[in-house]
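Researcher: Go.
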Amino acid sequence: MLSFTFLLLSAGLIALGAVLWRLSSSQDAYKVASFCLWIGAYACIANAPVFNLSIEPEMATLGNNLGLYVGFPMMALVLLDLALGWEWQKATWGRIFLGLAAMFELMRRAESGNSYGEFLLMACILALLIAFFKIIKNAIASGQAFKKHSIVLGFYFGLMVASLWSINTTFALLWNSLTLLTFGGYLYFAA
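Model: Structure:
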């Protein structure tokens, strides 16, 4: 059952990432969002029990670490970028990716990985709260449906908090994948 769930989530993440990649937008944030979704898909595929014999445990751990320490923060920054209109370029996103990967490795070697993961998720939640406030404020000012935005963003925020609470459990990957799927769906329908 767990294999089926992970494979279903990975198929959804891959498909949604492809749809976001093909959006005709001048903003690079949608391509970064696609990348975040594909990181989550890789983590799901690498950790599906059906592939335990063919995938090395190190590759499964790599998927978990990429999803948590790179995918989540970049996902929060994409939403913040879109909400505040920063329009970061590809080079900036590349530097953010390298910085997040380097910080993870430094914290892992200092044996502070769990504390860093918790800090990172709390910082992501703070960034998301700022982005949600700006999105909802803009929706109210332009007369858009406030309830539609608040329901989807509230669900997304709830999944992010659930991911924080499950950081050291087997459900962390499941919450991470569901959060990424909700994030991608929101970006697609908001575009």
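Model: The mean pLDDT is 85.
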